[in-house]
Amino acid sequence: MTDYLVLYRLARGAPAPAPDPAELERGKAAWGAWLGSIGAALIDPGAPTRPIGPEVSGVVDRVSGFTLLRAASDDELLGMLASHPHREVGTFEVHAVDVPPIARPS
Fold first, then answer.
1. pLDDT tens for residues 12-30?
2. Distance between CA atoms of residues 65 and 56, nearest Å
């Protein structure tokens, strides 16, 4: 099994979602359904992120959040992401995490 860091990316300067309560509830429901669908593959649901420094010239998108997942293969991981609700608003950056054996929980 391999652990994966999934970074959620948004276009820099993309408008913030409208604070429409119904839309927020639909988004929460979509994320909840996706999280429920991946079962034991979920290591950490992660959280939204925000930049802390000045804008960097030339950067066209930004990391907006992350999730840690575990899968038997890259293909299995990509299958999990195929139905992810973030696909509607942004892109992913995925990294395999090399966890030293001593650091992996039993």
1. 766 665 667 888 888 889 9
2. 18
For the chain, report the end-to-end CA distance as a whole number of angstroms: 13
Please report, as a single letter, which amino acid is at residue 42.
Answer: L
- Global pTM value: 0.79
| Domain 2-52+59-103 bears CATH identifier 2.40.150.20 | no
4, 82 Cβ separation under 8 angstroms = no
The residue whose two tokens read 């939204």 is 48
| 3-37 core/surface letters (b: 16 or more CB in 10 A; e: else) | bbbbbbbbeeeeeeeeeeeeeeeebeeeeeebeee
